[in-house]
Amino acid sequence: MRFENRHVLLTGGAGAMGRLIAADIRDQGGRVTVIDRNDPEDGGRFIPGDLSSPADLERLALRVATESWDVLINLAGIQHFGPLEAQHPDHLQATYMVNLVAPTRLIHAVLPTMKARGSGQIANVGSIFGSINFAHFATYSSSKAGLRALSQALRRELAGTGVGVTYVAPRAVRTPLNSATVNAYAALTGMAMDEPVAIARRIVQSIRGDRKDVYLGFPESLFVRLNGLAPGLIDGALRANDLKARALFAQ
Hints:
By secondary structure, this protein is α/β, with parallel strands linked by helices. The chain has a single domain (7-250), classed as Rossmann fold. Helix content is 50%, strand content 14%. It has a seven-stranded parallel β-sheet with strand order 3-2-1-4-5-6-7, with helices on both faces. Helix 4 links the parallel strand 5 and strand 6. Helix 1 crosses helix 6 (196-208), helix 3 runs parallel beside helix 4 (138-157) and helix 5 crosses helix 8. The radius of gyration is 18 Å and the shape is globular.
Protein backbone atom coordinates (compact mmCIF):
# COMPACT_ATOMS: atom_id res chain seq x y z
CA MET A 1 0.00 0.00 0.00
CA ARG A 2 1.28 3.45 -0.93
CA PHE A 3 0.59 6.19 1.61
CA GLU A 4 0.34 9.01 -0.91
CA ASN A 5 -3.03 10.77 -0.47
CA ARG A 6 -4.19 8.05 1.91
CA HIS A 7 -6.31 9.03 4.89
CA VAL A 8 -4.63 7.49 7.96
CA LEU A 9 -6.01 7.35 11.51
CA LEU A 10 -3.33 6.83 14.18
CA THR A 11 -3.96 6.32 17.89
CA GLY A 12 -1.23 7.28 20.34
CA GLY A 13 0.25 9.68 17.83
CA ALA A 14 1.47 12.15 20.45
CA GLY A 15 3.94 9.69 22.00
CA ALA A 16 7.55 9.15 21.04
CA MET A 17 6.78 6.33 18.62
CA GLY A 18 3.60 7.91 17.38
CA ARG A 19 5.27 11.14 16.33
CA LEU A 20 7.90 9.20 14.38
CA ILE A 21 5.31 7.06 12.61
CA ALA A 22 3.14 10.06 11.76
CA ALA A 23 6.13 11.99 10.37
CA ASP A 24 7.24 9.04 8.23
CA ILE A 25 3.78 8.56 6.73
CA ARG A 26 3.40 12.28 6.07
CA ASP A 27 6.79 12.29 4.35
CA GLN A 28 5.37 9.64 2.03
CA GLY A 29 2.36 11.83 1.22
CA GLY A 30 -0.15 10.41 3.68
CA ARG A 31 -2.73 12.50 5.53
CA VAL A 32 -2.50 11.54 9.19
CA THR A 33 -5.12 12.20 11.86
CA VAL A 34 -4.00 11.54 15.44
CA ILE A 35 -6.17 10.39 18.35
CA ASP A 36 -4.51 11.02 21.71
CA ARG A 37 -5.12 12.65 25.07
CA ASN A 38 -2.28 15.08 24.30
CA ASP A 39 -1.83 17.33 21.30
CA PRO A 40 1.16 16.07 19.26
CA GLU A 41 1.82 19.72 18.33
CA ASP A 42 3.11 18.75 14.90
CA GLY A 43 0.65 20.82 12.92
CA GLY A 44 -1.33 17.79 11.77
CA ARG A 45 -4.98 16.98 12.31
CA PHE A 46 -5.71 16.05 15.92
CA ILE A 47 -8.77 14.53 17.60
CA PRO A 48 -8.45 14.67 21.41
CA GLY A 49 -9.80 11.71 23.31
CA ASP A 50 -9.23 9.30 26.17
CA LEU A 51 -9.23 5.67 24.99
CA SER A 52 -9.35 4.42 28.58
CA SER A 53 -12.82 5.94 29.07
CA PRO A 54 -15.74 3.86 27.72
CA ALA A 55 -17.83 6.99 27.20
CA ASP A 56 -15.08 8.89 25.41
CA LEU A 57 -14.18 5.85 23.30
CA GLU A 58 -17.78 5.62 22.13
CA ARG A 59 -17.77 9.35 21.27
CA LEU A 60 -14.58 8.88 19.27
CA ALA A 61 -15.88 5.80 17.48
CA LEU A 62 -19.07 7.57 16.41
CA ARG A 63 -17.04 10.49 15.10
CA VAL A 64 -14.58 8.24 13.28
CA ALA A 65 -17.45 6.34 11.65
CA THR A 66 -18.60 9.49 9.83
CA GLU A 67 -15.41 9.55 7.70
CA SER A 68 -13.78 7.24 5.19
CA TRP A 69 -10.35 5.96 6.23
CA ASP A 70 -7.76 4.12 4.17
CA VAL A 71 -5.63 2.99 7.12
CA LEU A 72 -6.24 2.58 10.86
CA ILE A 73 -3.12 2.17 13.02
CA ASN A 74 -3.82 1.10 16.59
CA LEU A 75 -0.59 2.12 18.34
CA ALA A 76 -1.73 3.51 21.71
CA GLY A 77 -0.82 1.32 24.67
CA ILE A 78 -0.17 1.36 28.41
CA GLN A 79 1.54 -1.13 30.70
CA HIS A 80 2.00 -2.18 34.32
CA PHE A 81 5.23 -3.85 35.44
CA GLY A 82 4.97 -5.54 38.80
CA PRO A 83 2.93 -8.11 40.73
CA LEU A 84 -0.64 -8.24 39.50
CA GLU A 85 -2.04 -7.53 42.98
CA ALA A 86 -0.03 -4.29 43.11
CA GLN A 87 -1.73 -2.85 40.04
CA HIS A 88 -4.42 -0.30 40.87
CA PRO A 89 -7.86 -1.54 39.75
CA ASP A 90 -8.46 1.60 37.69
CA HIS A 91 -5.16 1.11 35.85
CA LEU A 92 -5.93 -2.58 35.35
CA GLN A 93 -9.19 -1.72 33.60
CA ALA A 94 -7.55 1.09 31.63
CA THR A 95 -4.92 -1.35 30.33
CA TYR A 96 -7.52 -3.57 28.69
CA MET A 97 -9.48 -0.55 27.46
CA VAL A 98 -6.52 1.09 25.73
CA ASN A 99 -4.71 -2.05 24.56
CA LEU A 100 -7.64 -4.16 23.40
CA VAL A 101 -11.14 -2.71 23.72
CA ALA A 102 -10.34 0.59 22.00
CA PRO A 103 -8.64 -1.01 18.98
CA THR A 104 -11.59 -3.37 18.59
CA ARG A 105 -14.17 -0.58 18.77
CA LEU A 106 -12.27 1.65 16.35
CA ILE A 107 -11.92 -1.21 13.89
CA HIS A 108 -15.65 -1.77 14.29
CA ALA A 109 -16.19 1.90 13.38
CA VAL A 110 -13.98 2.06 10.26
CA LEU A 111 -14.75 -1.33 8.71
CA PRO A 112 -18.10 -0.58 7.06
CA THR A 113 -16.69 2.07 4.73
CA MET A 114 -13.52 0.07 4.03
CA LYS A 115 -15.53 -3.01 3.07
CA ALA A 116 -17.96 -0.97 0.99
CA ARG A 117 -15.02 0.57 -0.90
CA GLY A 118 -13.26 -2.78 -1.22
CA SER A 119 -9.94 -1.54 0.18
CA GLY A 120 -8.29 -0.60 3.45
CA GLN A 121 -5.66 -1.60 5.97
CA ILE A 122 -5.95 -2.30 9.69
CA ALA A 123 -2.62 -2.22 11.53
CA ASN A 124 -2.41 -3.34 15.16
CA VAL A 125 0.83 -2.70 17.02
CA GLY A 126 1.18 -5.38 19.65
CA SER A 127 4.24 -6.67 21.46
CA ILE A 128 6.51 -9.69 21.68
CA PHE A 129 5.09 -9.81 25.23
CA GLY A 130 1.76 -10.77 23.64
CA SER A 131 3.29 -14.05 22.47
CA ILE A 132 5.87 -14.65 25.20
CA ASN A 133 3.80 -13.81 28.24
CA PHE A 134 6.24 -12.36 30.73
CA ALA A 135 5.86 -12.57 34.50
CA HIS A 136 5.10 -9.21 36.13
CA PHE A 137 3.58 -7.96 32.85
CA ALA A 138 0.37 -9.95 33.28
CA THR A 139 -2.21 -7.41 32.10
CA TYR A 140 0.06 -5.96 29.41
CA SER A 141 0.94 -9.40 28.04
CA SER A 142 -2.62 -10.68 28.12
CA SER A 143 -4.09 -7.56 26.51
CA LYS A 144 -1.50 -7.70 23.72
CA ALA A 145 -2.18 -11.43 23.32
CA GLY A 146 -5.80 -10.49 22.79
CA LEU A 147 -4.80 -7.94 20.15
CA ARG A 148 -2.78 -10.59 18.35
CA ALA A 149 -5.76 -12.99 18.40
CA LEU A 150 -8.08 -10.22 17.20
CA SER A 151 -5.75 -9.52 14.28
CA GLN A 152 -5.61 -13.16 13.21
CA ALA A 153 -9.36 -13.72 13.53
CA LEU A 154 -10.16 -10.51 11.68
CA ARG A 155 -7.72 -11.32 8.87
CA ARG A 156 -9.56 -14.58 8.29
CA GLU A 157 -12.93 -12.85 8.49
CA LEU A 158 -11.93 -10.21 5.95
CA ALA A 159 -10.35 -12.54 3.40
CA GLY A 160 -11.45 -11.53 -0.09
CA THR A 161 -12.87 -8.14 0.95
CA GLY A 162 -9.85 -6.04 -0.03
CA VAL A 163 -9.21 -5.07 3.59
CA GLY A 164 -5.89 -6.27 5.00
CA VAL A 165 -4.78 -6.77 8.60
CA THR A 166 -1.19 -6.27 9.77
CA TYR A 167 0.02 -7.22 13.24
CA VAL A 168 3.43 -5.88 14.26
CA ALA A 169 5.02 -7.02 17.53
CA PRO A 170 8.16 -5.16 18.63
CA ARG A 171 10.23 -6.26 21.59
CA ALA A 172 11.01 -3.66 24.28
CA VAL A 173 11.53 -0.16 22.89
CA ARG A 174 13.38 2.66 24.64
CA THR A 175 10.50 5.11 25.16
CA PRO A 176 8.93 7.02 28.08
CA LEU A 177 6.35 4.21 28.31
CA ASN A 178 8.95 2.33 30.34
CA SER A 179 8.96 3.14 34.04
CA ALA A 180 12.13 3.48 36.09
CA THR A 181 11.49 -0.03 37.41
CA VAL A 182 11.26 -1.44 33.87
CA ASN A 183 14.56 0.23 33.02
CA ALA A 184 16.11 -1.22 36.19
CA TYR A 185 14.83 -4.68 35.22
CA ALA A 186 16.29 -4.30 31.72
CA ALA A 187 19.68 -3.36 33.16
CA LEU A 188 19.56 -6.21 35.68
CA THR A 189 18.63 -8.91 33.19
CA GLY A 190 20.31 -7.62 30.02
CA MET A 191 16.95 -7.25 28.27
CA ALA A 192 17.43 -5.75 24.83
CA MET A 193 15.73 -2.42 24.11
CA ASP A 194 15.45 -1.07 20.58
CA GLU A 195 15.59 2.57 19.58
CA PRO A 196 12.22 4.05 18.60
CA VAL A 197 13.43 5.50 15.26
CA ALA A 198 14.30 2.04 13.91
CA ILE A 199 11.11 0.41 15.20
CA ALA A 200 8.86 3.18 13.89
CA ARG A 201 10.44 2.71 10.46
CA ARG A 202 9.86 -1.05 10.58
CA ILE A 203 6.23 -0.56 11.59
CA VAL A 204 5.61 1.79 8.66
CA GLN A 205 7.41 -0.57 6.27
CA SER A 206 5.30 -3.49 7.49
CA ILE A 207 2.08 -1.59 6.88
CA ARG A 208 3.21 -0.36 3.48
CA GLY A 209 4.18 -3.91 2.52
CA ASP A 210 0.79 -5.30 3.63
CA ARG A 211 2.63 -7.75 5.89
CA LYS A 212 0.57 -10.07 8.08
CA ASP A 213 2.37 -11.05 11.30
CA VAL A 214 5.69 -9.30 11.96
CA TYR A 215 7.81 -10.03 15.04
CA LEU A 216 10.74 -7.68 15.59
CA GLY A 217 13.96 -8.65 17.36
CA PHE A 218 16.13 -11.73 17.66
CA PRO A 219 16.17 -14.08 19.54
CA GLU A 220 12.71 -12.94 20.73
CA SER A 221 11.12 -13.72 17.36
CA LEU A 222 12.48 -17.26 17.66
CA PHE A 223 11.16 -17.56 21.23
CA VAL A 224 7.70 -16.67 19.90
CA ARG A 225 7.74 -19.85 17.82
CA LEU A 226 9.22 -21.95 20.62
CA ASN A 227 6.66 -20.67 23.13
CA GLY A 228 3.88 -21.72 20.79
CA LEU A 229 5.31 -25.23 20.45
CA ALA A 230 6.79 -25.88 23.89
CA PRO A 231 5.97 -23.22 26.48
CA GLY A 232 7.65 -25.28 29.20
CA LEU A 233 11.01 -24.64 27.56
CA ILE A 234 10.44 -20.89 27.74
CA ASP A 235 9.33 -21.19 31.38
CA GLY A 236 12.76 -22.55 32.19
CA ALA A 237 14.60 -20.02 30.04
CA LEU A 238 12.86 -17.10 31.73
CA ARG A 239 12.91 -18.37 35.31
CA ALA A 240 16.20 -16.76 36.35
CA ASN A 241 15.09 -13.34 35.10
CA ASP A 242 11.66 -13.79 36.71
CA LEU A 243 13.36 -14.30 40.06
CA LYS A 244 15.48 -11.21 39.52
CA ALA A 245 12.31 -9.22 38.82
CA ARG A 246 10.68 -10.60 41.95
CA ALA A 247 13.68 -9.41 43.96
CA LEU A 248 13.14 -5.87 42.65
CA PHE A 249 9.69 -5.76 44.25
CA ALA A 250 10.92 -7.28 47.52
CA GLN A 251 13.19 -4.30 48.15
